[in-house]
Write a structure and sequence with these properties.
- The structure is a single chain.
- By secondary structure, the chain is mainly alpha-helical.
- It contains 16 helices and no strands.
- The two termini are 27 Å apart.
- This is TPR_REGION domain-containing protein.
Length: 284
């Protein structure tokens, strides 16, 4: 995967609140692209979002405070984190507030993008959209920002053609944009247009053959459309590639209990899911 693919995969895990998986992907990207500081930011973000590793996240993010493209996002992250510590460092918060005012004065499209990304992933969708709009005023053809704005619109319940057009523009401008493709998929899923969602996912599977996400989303799409046979087939296919896939295990349990009425096998699978969650996502 290239840098952009890694970033999209990391963001995907964050949206699904798989923060330990998010961090593992960020660390893998850091090892491969040692000069790309955005992966260090995403690593720090994973540490703070799970709520259990705040001090570790603060240490990681503090090292990025002087990075021009990340300064605004890092400052917002640190303020968010310090407010959630058991003992709040009020002096540090005052210092960060002052730094935030300075960052606003030198806002760029890229710094606004990372600020919007943090706000989006931490659940502050309205504020994320504000920063997205600021970024697009500075750089109207910022493909990543167009995609992120589309995701904000989806989270705000705006599933209109205007939202779909944001993802389309991102793909026109950015080319190979996994995040924008997944935005299109989510748009069609929310509008119950499962055939359109599947068509996009088939295209994504060809374009990103090493990424398992298209199969996972295709499985979820078939499940939402009550296509049990296709759902079970994809769950088994995913588990053959990734035996501890939490999404596929969850769906497999649903098939066993709801569709097949096999409660014994479902209970065994549920035990395996519980142990897998403890190993892979202990914060969930």
């Amino acid at each position: 995967m290239d840098e952009h693919d890694y970033r999209s995969v990391i963001i995907y895990h964050a949206r699904n609140r798989y923060y330990y998986t998010m961090q593992r992907s960020a660390l893998e990207a850091m090892a491969k692209y040692t000069n790309e500081v955005s992966f260090r930011f995403l690593n720090g973000l994973a540490l703070i979002l799970d709520g259990f590793r705040l001090q570790e996240g603060i240490r990681e993010l503090n090292q990025l405070r002087s990075e021009p493209d990340l300064g605004m996002a890092v400052t917002l992250c640190l303020m968010y984190t310090h407010k959630r510590c058991h003992v709040v460092d009020k002096e540090e918060l005052i210092s960060l507030d002052g730094q935030l005012k300075e960052e606003r004065k030198r806002l760029t499209a890229q710094s606004a993008y990372y600020a919007a990304l943090f706000l989006h992933l931490s659940g502050k969708t309205e504020k994320a959209k504000e920063y997205a709009d600021k970024a697009l005023r500075l750089a109207p053809n910022h493909a990543d920002m167009l995609s992120l704005k589309g995701w904000c619109e989806l989270q705000l319940g705006r599933t209109t053609n205007q939202t779909l057009e944001l993802f389309g523009r991102a793909l026109e401008l950015g080319g190979k944009q996994l995040d924008a493709y997944l935005g299109q998929v989510r748009f069609y899923q929310l509008n119950n247009d499962f055939d359109a969602a599947t068509a996009v996912l088939n295209q994504v599977a060809v374009g990103f053959p090493t990424v398992i996400i298209p199969l996972v989303e295709k499985m979820k799409t078939h499940l939402a459309n009550w296509h049990w046979e296709h759902t079970a087939e994809l769950a088994n296919r995913i588990l053959a590639e990734k035996p501890a896939s939490l999404e596929a295990l969850t769906v497999k349990i649903m098939v066993l209990i709801v569709k097949e009425g096999n409660c014994g096998a479902g209970a065994s699978a549920l035990q395996y899911l519980a142990s897998s969650v403890e190993k892979i996502e202990p914060g969930n």
